[in-house]
Hints:
The chain has 260 residues and is of the alpha+beta class. The chain has 10 helices and 9 strands. The strands form 2 sheets. Strands 6-5-4-9-8-7 form a 6-stranded antiparallel sheet. It has a 3-stranded antiparallel sheet with strand order 1-3-2. The radius of gyration is 21 Å and the shape is globular. The N terminus is likely disordered.
Amino acid sequence: MSPSDRDSQSTEPSGSLERAAAILDAFDFSHRELGLAELVRRSGLPRSTVHRTAGRMIELGWLDKPGDRYRISTGLFKLSSLVPVRHELREAVLPFLQDLYAAARVTVQLGVLDGTQVLVVEKITGHRPMPMLDQVGGMIPAHCSGLGRAILAFSTTSTVDAVIAAGLNRRTPRTITSPTALRRELAAIPDQGWAYDREEGNVGISCIAAPIFSAGGDVAAALSVTGPSAAVRPDRIGPAVRMAAAAATRAYSTRRWESH
């Protein structure tokens, strides 16, 4: 096989932006810094390509390389703060997350639906963080999380169908994996006022979440209280979560209206 034939059959991304994206995707909260060999393995790109592309990304301010390890630059971090979902939503809701944390004293989170998963937009943990929970920027399954269910309960049928089609993976013995049971669970949330995940994402951890709506009445996000099951009880935490979400909705919908 000639070199040109091998190139034509290569699965390596052909564009410089695609190669840069593959390198950026190699980083996550468990891999904040990567050596060259790790970056090659996690990106799936040839070593020479990674070395050349990463070098150019350093010049552009997309990556840093203190010593012999690569990491995401502060330049990209600054840009991320301009993303509307981080800026507008977070700025409007953060005071209510802080109030909710002060009342509950366990982790509070803010999330939005991103495809069939929930993107964690903000999180307050205090001095006792729970490492099993995703960090800001992390993704969690929508079907077995309080945040996801609070959003799905007010989403379109097609959105719920897409989540179900993506697979209702079992994370713990309590995870609901039946489409019928999930739909029944979602149907009860509007009257109840909150979604309840009882150890379905992580053993020993429960979550109560409520939706946040936009000025147009569409569900935009959800906030939650997440912690040890003994501390996160619906009868005690549920009303506080529901009230915080209602107040956050008023603040967010007003902010969105005024910005337009």
